[in-house]
Amino acid sequence: MEELLKRIVVDPKVMGGKPVIRGTRITVDLILELLASGMTPEEIAEDYKISVEDVRAALLYAAKILGREEIMIVEAKT
């Protein structure tokens, strides 16, 4: 799994420092949005000229980042 994370890089000079697929300007958040919209990893890989492993790396990176944060659910008062 850690090998997958090597596919993700953060460089302040690329896409404002957002995490991207190594050697591209494709951001992790874009990949997450595409998956949420219903695209498959295979479709994303084909459309953006990356590998399915790159898509998996983006998912793993996002999971690792979210796993570090405490998420608070706030109920709206009505």
Which helices and strands appear, and what pairs or packs with what?
Blueprint (H helix, E strand, L loop, with lengths): L1 H4 L2 E2 L10 E2 L6 H9 L4 H8 L3 H17 L10
Antiparallel strand pairs: 1-2
Characterization of the model:
InterPro entries: DUF433, Homeodomain-like_sf, WH-like_DNA-bd_sf. This is DUF433 domain-containing protein. It comes from Ignisphaera aggregans (strain DSM 17230 / JCM 13409 / AQ1.S1). With 78 residues, the chain is mainly alpha-helical. It has one domain: Winged helix-like DNA-binding domain superfamily/Winged helix DNA-binding domain (Arc Repressor Mutant, subunit A, Orthogonal Bundle), CATH 1.10.10.10. The protein is 49% helix and 5% strand. The chain has four helices and two strands, in the order H-E-E-H-H-H. The chain has helices at 2-5, 28-36, 41-48, 52-68; strands spanning 8-9, 20-21. The protein has a two-stranded antiparallel sheet. Helix 3 crosses helix 4. 18% of the residues are buried. The mean pLDDT is 91.
